């Protein structure tokens, strides 16, 4: 690609700013593609402040591809617990196994081979090969979309095929191929620290003299999105059933949320419902109709938990039973003290934390 001096000047400004203001983060101190990969996957849906602790814990337990590949999925999910988006952890595990089988345990250096690994898209592949080997592959994440859309006042929606192509071209246009890794880090960091979504301090931005949106006084209009994510409401009722210090859990399967994670027996209804209404459902009768006398304590009620395309409203009930019904034979029986050994969704983790703190 033929580049103009003004385009390379943008890169020089970005890198100079980055060298002065960048955050000191452990994954920036290495060229190890495995460590870079783990950090990128964790940070896809998690802010750096929250993700750092998880990154350190995860990489301490799984310091390389081999250690991750041979681990049991349950343990991988347990170390991922609290980050959410558990398909990312399962994909990491599957990709590590693939690296061991297809590439003899050596992380691939070729962009297309990296892209072929499960759970790695164009952005992550570009980040890995540019950060680890300085390959001239431009990255385009949410921060980069925002910087570029304002810098060039692009009103093409970022969530369209046309928009994605246009922004990829712009990212490549200003990329200095001789300094690709640092450039990519710099433009992402600018979006994270300076060119923020709301109320950016444009007066101190290093690119203010080149930013078309700033010149027109219309920074907040960018980036443009075409479609709003549609969400649906779901109503969960969790039953923490106890009999002589024993309880029951179930491992989620199928293509629904939280596949592979453990949860208490769940009754899902199509609308909000209090406990008296729940007791009248056939699902409740099928589960605890033969459990004898029930001693019930409500833990949390109607807790709102937002996912990317769903909003969950969850209630938790601790129920001590008089006898064990046959229906619980379909669940995993375990001592109550062993619950912490199992990977559970963040929603249940919150409940258990509050329960240990006596709610």
TrEMBL record:
* Family recorded in the similarity comment: Belongs to the Nth/MutY family.
Pfam family example for this protein?
HhH-GPD
Required cofactors, per record? [4Fe-4S] cluster
Which GO terms fall under biological process for this protein?
base-excision repair; mismatch repair
Record keywords, A-Z: 4Fe-4S, DNA damage, DNA repair, Glycosidase, Hydrolase, Iron, Iron-sulfur, Metal-binding
> Which principal EC class is assigned to this enzyme?
hydrolase
Database matches in InterPro entries: A/G_AdeGlyc_MutY, DNA_glycosylase, Endonuclease3_FeS-loop_motif, HhH-GPD_domain, HhH_base_excis_C, HhH_motif, MIG/MutY, MutY_C
**Cofactor binding note of this UniProt entry:** Binds 1 [4Fe-4S] cluster.
Query: What does this protein's UniProt record list under function?
Result: Adenine glycosylase active on G-A mispairs. MutY also corrects error-prone DNA synthesis past GO lesions which are due to the oxidatively damaged form of guanine: 7,8-dihydro-8-oxoguanine (8-oxo-dGTP).
Catalyses: Hydrolyzes free adenine bases from 7,8-dihydro-8-oxoguanine:adenine mismatched double-stranded DNA, leaving an apurinic site
Q: Name one GO molecular function term.
A: 8-oxo-7,8-dihydroguanine DNA N-glycosylase activity
| Enzyme Commission (EC) number | 3.2.2.31
State the SUPFAM superfamilies in the record.
Answer: DNA-glycosylase (SSF48150), Nudix (SSF55811)
Q: Boundaries of each HhH-GPD domain copy?
A: 42-193
Protein's name according to its UniProt entry: Adenine DNA glycosylase
């Amino acid at each position: 690609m033929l580049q103009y001096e003004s385009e390379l000047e943008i890169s020089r400004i970005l890198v100079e700013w980055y060298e002065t203001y960048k955050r000191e983060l452990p994954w920036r101190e290495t060229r190890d593609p495995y460590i870079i990969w783990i950090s990128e996957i964790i940070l896809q849906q998690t802010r750096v402040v929250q993700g750092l602790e998880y990154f350190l814990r995860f990489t301490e337990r799984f310091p390389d591809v081999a250690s991750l590949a041979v681990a049991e999925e349950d343990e991988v999910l347990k170390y991922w617990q609290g980050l959410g988006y558990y398909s990312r952890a399962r994909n990491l595990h599957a990709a590590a196994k693939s690296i061991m089988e297809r590439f003899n345990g050596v992380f691939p250096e070729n962009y297309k081979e990296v892209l072929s690994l499960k759970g790695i898209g164009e952005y992550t592949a570009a980040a890995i090969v540019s950060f680890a080997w300085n390959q001239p592959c431009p990255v385009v994440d949410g921060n980069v979309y925002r910087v570029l859309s304002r810098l060039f006042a692009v009103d093409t929606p970022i969530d369209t095929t046309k928009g994605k192509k246009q922004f990829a071209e712009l990212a490549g246009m200003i990329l200095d191929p001789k300094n690709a890794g640092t450039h990519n880090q710099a433009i992402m960091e600018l979006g994270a620290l300076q060119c923020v979504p709301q109320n950016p301090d444009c007066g101190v931005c290093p690119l203010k003299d080149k930013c078309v949106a700033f010149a027109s006084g219309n920074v907040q209009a960018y980036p443009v999105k075409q479609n709003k994510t549609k969400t649906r409401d779901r109503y969960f009722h969790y039953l923490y059933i106890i009999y002589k210090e024993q309880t029951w859990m179930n491992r989620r399967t199928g293509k629904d949320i939280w596949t592979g994670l453990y949860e208490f027996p769940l009754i899902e209804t199509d609308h909000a419902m209090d406990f008296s209404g729940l007791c009248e459902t056939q699902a409740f009768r099928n589960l605890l109709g033969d459990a004898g006398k029930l001693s019930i304590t409500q833990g949390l009620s109607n807790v709102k938990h937002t996912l990317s395309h769903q909003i969950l409203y969850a209630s938790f009930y601790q129920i001590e039973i008089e006898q064990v019904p046959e229906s619980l034979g379909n669940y995993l029986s375990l001592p109550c003290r062993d619950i912490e050994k199992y990977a559970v969704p963040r929603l249940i983790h919150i409940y258990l934390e509050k329960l240990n703190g006596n709610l």
